[in-house]
Specification:
Largest interface: A-B, 38 and 32 residues
Protein name (chains A, B, C): Fibrinogen C-terminal domain-containing protein
Order of helices and strands of chain A: HHHEEEEHEHEHEEHHEEEEEHE
Number of strands of chain A: 14
Organism (chains A, B, C): Silurus meridionalis (Southern catfish)
Structural class of chain A: alpha+beta
GO molecular function, one term (chains A, B, C): metal ion binding
Helix content of chain A: 10-25%
Keywords (chains A, B, C): Calcium, Disulfide bond, Lectin, Metal-binding, Signal
Strand content of chain A: 15-25%
Oligomer: homotrimer
InterPro entries (chains A, B, C): Fibrinogen-like_C, Fibrinogen_a/b/g_C_1, Fibrinogen_a/b/g_C_dom
Number of helices of chain A: 9
């Protein structure tokens, strides 16, 4: 980040006047970037955290007023790998009661991946824990798409408008500190986290619901995003994209999770949990469709 | 988009005039760096992609006119680990028909490693997919050498001069999109990719050939670099360094590959495939020499 | 080399005067940062290596005169995972005589992690091999603490004052080149590396000793940091934090190590070796306390 060098340079040669101005001049979110400079183009921008970490991420500057910051992507690198290398949003340790929280990525400051590879690998940037936000947006983008094709190739995009994050300390990092993604912390349905109603920007509640298998459709209501769901066996999942559970077999429609899923362990363990329960991408029984199984889940803040 | 920060930074100190000039000032390759600023020293430089990702890599500014950009290194971290953690150019998933493309690194935008550690770990920078090039150069450098010793410690260096990349959309990322490194996409020898003649900068066709076992030497012709070779069982490999297959047991002289190698699976799976088929570094039968087994393969563009 | 870009940027706006100042303005360590600019605040700063790699890390600017640079952290992500993914300071290859040096992180230039996540993941920055130092400091900080809470949440902090690194080429990278962390390089106690006396900044020799199990306390003397210890079976460990071995069961009080630990292999293999020999965090027999088992070991240079 050569410009950082310049900034550091100025700072350390006591041109503190530049530094002060610079403090005003490094945006911490795409929302701030839009508000202050009125950028209207979707694409990659540089942001900085409160502690001075500079990183590049994608800003959606056009949807519903724009100012959406990409902070994470959940990508299934191997549906057949059950909590193996690359399952950074669940566990890379094989699935075991000894690692109830798995890798713990939902509530720690570990970062990984890059914005340009967000549909080819798991991605988590410092904005995930640094930005104070009110709402989230989610995109489902087929794997291995280039940044400038994400929006046009996506098949589902939605956002919340309830400012629900105000009740959870302003971001998912803090939400998941309050509601741990950890085996054994609660029961279904008593201890599910919030289900927030959605506004669809591409697709609708029906097309969203049809991404999942018929059996789990019968146990969910579409048009909501749910955080920290629990399943029958007490396993915890981070995000149920587009649905609100009415039953407890949530491993077939929720992504991310703790490190232990007791039922047929480790068959439900992985970034996309039990999406392949009745076959890979079959869309039959409990299995999700090929379309949603082979797409990354991009998570934005505003 | 890194211009945003520059814009911001400079606007805040009222030097917005420089923005335009700055746009001219970030080179995308070592070739451009050399052409515009006539640098003649091998070493680490900063480059920027079209999307504004700034990264540091090694430039060979002296060989055959210079301007060579290091974009990747293939390093075998554990010859005994068959598609285990660290096999980023093949598969970290153990080797299975379920992951025919393995980690997919040859044709995605995932990056890893650093230039300074390119002989101690796998390395892939944004130049791999961002730079438009015509030729490639390859160095074989013993593992764990420091940057300033790479050239003197290397035992084999060569480059192409045919501008073959013009026929494959300008880089290996695009070449491997056209010719997937994936189990089952073709047969041997029908579906091998291009074999390009070499100009040697250190070593020659004979010393190059002798790096591999006698059995595979009898099935290859030296003095070429081959891309996307197929073996008897239909497994795909990315690069055969210095040789053109005349037979089909290419897993003993090619590096990188898909995630599945049927013969004695997973014994041929890994960044250096079946280099140890007749023992580690023995140079006997099908086995490669210790020298090539314990050296990283550095890949340059120009 | 990053100055090239700066040069270009600034020359293009005719501010080449800044360039000269910039050359003076990139500190290579927190010590240099303190000496030249008299910073007195603990926190994150940017540093640059001789080769121009710019990175951010934590500086302790207050302890014993300040100027301490965080260069690494050893974090046990899964005490039950024996040389599995995340054991970057020992081996991610399962533990085997075939990988006697494990991942080799103690004596190569591979870097990983970030300063902000240094208590949630293994961390190694370019300062580890780039900085020329005389002494080390170590902090034990409970896992998953935020940077601004490290000091207050830590339960043990100490440093050396003997300038012992002058005898080992100025840093741990070079020390471990001289004294490899590799199975089979020596015997216990003949081939232990240096044991350096400590000055405690938080805690004392007794509280330090009590972090480990009673059996190993009986075989160690507290108040020293020991580098490259060997155990009964010839396995090598990198750092024994706060103790000097008088016996040979050092896998119960030393962190980091080679890739092979013969006794009950791979039960002693991992970033925190055999800390759980008599149960996880029990503090009974050979087992370490829960407090030290669930804390990252932060390593500083000065």
């Amino acid at each position: 980040m050569n410009w950082i060098i310049v900034l550091v340079g100025f700072m350390s040669i006591n041109l503190s006047v530049c530094l002060k101005e610079l403090e005003y001049s490094t945006p911490r979110s795409c929302k701030e970037l839009k508000q202050r400079f009125d950028f209207n183009t979707d694409g990659l921008y540089y942001l900085s955290t409160a502690s001075g970490v500079v990183y590049q991420t994608y800003c959606d500057m056009t949807t519903a007023g724009g100012g959406w910051t990409l902070v994470a992507s959940v990508h299934e690198n191997n549906m057949y790998g059950k909590c193996t290398t690359g399952d950074r949003w669940s566990s890379q340790q094989g699935g075991s009661p000894n690692v109830p929280e798995g890798d713990g990525s939902w509530s720690n400051t570990v970062t990984f991946g890059t914005a340009e590879a967000a549909t080819s690998d798991d991605f988590k940037n410092p904005g995930y824990y640094d930005i104070t936000a009110e709402d989230v947006a989610v995109w489902h983008v087929p794997n291995n798409k280039r940044v400038d094709h994400w929006k046009v190739k996506s098949f589902l995009r939605y956002h919340t408008e309830t400012k629900f994050l105000n009740s959870y300390r302003g971001n998912l990092y803090n939400l998941f500190k309050l509601l741990p993604v950890k085996f054994g912390v609660g029961t279904c349905p008593t201890n599910h986290g919030p289900s927030v109603p959605l506004v669809y920007d591409l697709g609708d509640a029906t097309s969203n619901h049809n991404l999942y298998g018929p059996n789990i459709r019968a146990q969910t209501q579409s048009g909501f995003i749910t955080f920290r769901a629990i399943n029958t066996e007490g396993a915890a999942m981070a995000i149920c994209s587009g649905v609100k559970p009415t039953g407890c077999h949530n491993e077939h429609c929720c992504v991310g999770g703790g490190g232990h899923f007791p039922e047929a362990s480790p068959r439900q363990c992985g970034d996309f949990t039990g999406f392949d329960w009745d076959g890979y991408g079959t869309g039959v029984g409990w299995s999700a469709s090929k379309q949603v199984t082979e797409a990354a889940v991009l998570i934005f803040y505003r």
